[in-house]
């Protein structure tokens, strides 16, 4: 009989043939064989403790590389845990594919092991989902989920592989024929480009503006638009404002950076060119009172639906890099530049200087027991000291993420990962692992609140197992927002002696967690201890946890979102 291969081998071959190099996940029935075959075929499999973290890793990998991040899970509960990563990819519009094993098709509806209608379960969180009902469908299904994930507006897709299909067999030659046919038939859709008349209109609106502003987000980062953005900013002299994950596309320290004058910039601009950022809660929906009621938005987005939803003055549908290239060409033929003495540029520049010097005065003080600012300044300086390639900073928490956003400096694109559009807590370690795998030349530094860290802390073992150059810094203030913030009258009822809902064990020894697995832990409480731990761990480039003891009364409840809590 001719050599035969099963569904596990065919699925692994399909992924390898269609360009997949990494996979994240948690193995078990029925997908362990698939993971092992994938490794044999040159795919690096990063095994996690929890599908949530593995899913967050897959979503961030999609963002950092522009290729779908893959999550492999078992059936039923494994698929449900994986929905955390899939939904995160959907909301942030990052390409990702979740692959789950599922129960035997002939036992459907009879209460089989880990049975769930997974195609139905993933519906709200995926742009495309498909079940391979027979081994011969596997190559086509694999190609379709990979292609859908990156086409148009990127997002999460789902592939269902039933147990019986993974156990079916076909001959090597049949498999090869199927793979070749599918490979030949793959068609990649060209990205839309706006007509030149629309580009002319956009440039004309920018040219006539008295107080123009360029806003860019992680969509521009995903599109690798940094070169065109920098050209546009420097050619026109227009101030710019990045969203948190857009930071670093143009250096945060650039003289036209308006981040430190954000309220003035968005409150007074008359024209805003918004590139790869949505007018959602992060940008106050583009509405007054934060924005001027007469502001004209020029939106550049890969999604036509997004532009229809926001009803801007002008919408340009297309890839951010391509559209900016067209805008730059149009300006080059008839250049204009605001110049440093332009009243708008001067106003922004003055406000930036005032706010930065106020902030620097606060940062200059060495306060301990630590507040948030002193350790954040020391971390900022240590990260800047690494030079290029700059470390990837992963940031999650309430106060820790807020303070980090205004203090930490991004000098290179795609070097900041945080809770993102959805404000997702628990992404920290998954994002660290994705960044280390996607950018092996970069150090990864996580700046985590103790609550944020707790969601995925067990994955420090994964860091040690794969010897990843990740340093996790935990701001330990004894709980969510910092210990017990209740007023005396709130402490009543039969369980009043319980710790507050926001409290953790005080003085938790987080640094010993990684030591349990052979990593390096540091406990720090003074500026000198922190400097020494950072210097040592950054040069070692090995897995480490630095437990930074913060005054529990530093920081605010809900970070800067008190109005929502």
UniProtKB/TrEMBL annotation:
SUPFAM superfamilies according to UniProt: DHS-like NAD/FAD-binding domain, Thiamin diphosphate-binding fold (THDP-binding)
Top class in the EC scheme: lyase
GO molecular function: 2-hydroxyacyl-CoA lyase activity; magnesium ion binding; thiamine pyrophosphate binding
GO BP of this protein: fatty acid alpha-oxidation
Keywords of the record: Lyase, Magnesium, Metal-binding, Thiamine pyrophosphate
Catalytic activity of the protein: a 2-hydroxy-3-methyl fatty acyl-CoA = a 2-methyl-branched fatty aldehyde + formyl-CoA; an (R)-2-hydroxy-long-chain-fatty acyl-CoA = a long-chain fatty aldehyde + formyl-CoA
Protein name: 2-hydroxyacyl-CoA lyase
């Amino acid at each position: 009989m001719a050599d035969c291969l099963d569904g596990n081998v065919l699925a692994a071959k399909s992924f390898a043939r269609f360009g997949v190099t990494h996979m994240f996940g948690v193995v078990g029935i029925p997908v362990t064989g698939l993971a092992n075959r994938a490794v044999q075929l040159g795919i690096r499999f990063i095994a996690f403790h929890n599908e949530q973290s593995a899913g967050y890793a897959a979503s961030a990998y999609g963002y950092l590389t522009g290729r779908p991040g893959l999550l492999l899970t078992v059936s039923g509960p494994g698929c449900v845990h994986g929905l955390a990563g899939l939904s995160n990819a959907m909301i942030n519009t990052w390409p990702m594919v979740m692959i789950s094993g599922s129960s035997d098709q002939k036992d459907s509806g009879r209460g089989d092991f880990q049975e769930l209608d997974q195609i139905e379960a993933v519906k709200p969180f995926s742009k495309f989902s498909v079940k391979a009902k027979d081994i011969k469908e596997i190559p086509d299904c694999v190609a379709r989920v990979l292609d859908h994930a990156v086409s148009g507006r990127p997002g999460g897709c789902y592939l269902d592989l039933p147990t019986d299909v993974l156990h079916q067999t076909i001959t090597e030659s049949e498999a090869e024929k199927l793979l070749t046919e599918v490979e030949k038939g793959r068609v990649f859709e060209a990205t839309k480009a706006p007509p030149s008349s629309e580009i002319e209109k956009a440039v004309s609106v920018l040219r006539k503006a008295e107080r123009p502003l360029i806003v860019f987000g992680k969509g521009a980062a995903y599109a690798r638009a940094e070169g065109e953005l920098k050209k546009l900013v420097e050619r026109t002299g227009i101030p710019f404002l990045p969203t948190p994950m857009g930071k670093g596309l143009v250096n945060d320290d650039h003289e036209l950076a308006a981040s430190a004058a954000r309220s003035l910039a968005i409150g007074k601009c008359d024209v805003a060119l918004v590139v790869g950022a949505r007018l959602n809660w992060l940008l106050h929906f583009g509405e007054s009172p934060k924005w001027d009621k007469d502001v004209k938005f020029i939106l550049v987005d890969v999604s036509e639906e997004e532009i229809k939803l926001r009803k801007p003055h002008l919408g340009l549908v297309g890839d951010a890099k391509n559209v900016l290239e067209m805008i730059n060409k149009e300006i080059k033929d008839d250049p204009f530049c605001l110049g440093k003495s332009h009243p708008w540029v001067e106003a922004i520049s003055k406000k930036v200087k005032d706010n930065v010097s106020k902030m620097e005065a606060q940062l200059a003080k060495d306060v301990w027991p630590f507040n948030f600012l002193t350790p954040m300044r020391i971390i900022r300086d240590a990260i800047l000291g690494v030079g290029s390639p700059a470390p990837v900073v992963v940031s999650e928490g309430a106060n820790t993420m807020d303070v980090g956003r205004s203090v930490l400096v991004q000098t290179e694109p795609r070097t900041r990962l945080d809770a993102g559009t959805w404000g997702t807590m628990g992404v920290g370690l998954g994002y660290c692992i994705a960044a280390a795998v996607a950018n092996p030349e970069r150090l990864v530094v996580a700046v985590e609140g103790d609550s944020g860290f707790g969601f995925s802390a067990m994955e420090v073992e994964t860091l040690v197992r794969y010897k990843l150059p990740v340093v996790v810094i935990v701001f330990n203030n004894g709980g969510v927002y910092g210990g017990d913030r209740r007023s005396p009258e709130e402490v009543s009822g039969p369980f009043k002696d319980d710790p507050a809902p926001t409290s953790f064990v005080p003085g938790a020894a987080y640094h010993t967690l990684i030591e349990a697995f052979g990593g390096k832990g540091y406990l720090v409480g003074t500026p000198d201890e922190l400097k020494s731990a950072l210097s040592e761990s950054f040069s070692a480039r090995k897995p480490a946890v630095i437990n930074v003891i913060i005054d529990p009364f530093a920081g605010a409840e809900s970070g800067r979102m008190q109005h929502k809590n």
